[in-house]
Amino acid sequence: MPHAKILLPAQCRAARGLINWSQGDLADRAGVSRSTVKDFETERHALHHSTERLLIDAIEAGGVSLIFADEAGPGVRFRRPV
């Protein structure tokens, strides 16, 4: 059974770190407010599914692969250049 693709706050912070984006950079690229990113990353609130999808899409477009929960645990890494 496949694992759910749930973005974790620590994953979001790590992904931004890999590509040297601020919270504002991610917010701009995802089309959400900076406070949405900040509140999510500091675990003040969870994301709506549609907002989570926007963040995932922006992170992946920025060149980071999100590794969702599996036996090794969640993580992030650079995507292989095409």
UniProtKB/TrEMBL annotation:
PROSITE patterns: HTH_CROC1. Residues 13-45 form the HTH cro/C1-type domain. SUPFAM superfamilies: lambda repressor-like DNA-binding domains. This is Helix-turn-helix domain-containing protein. It comes from Caulobacter segnis.
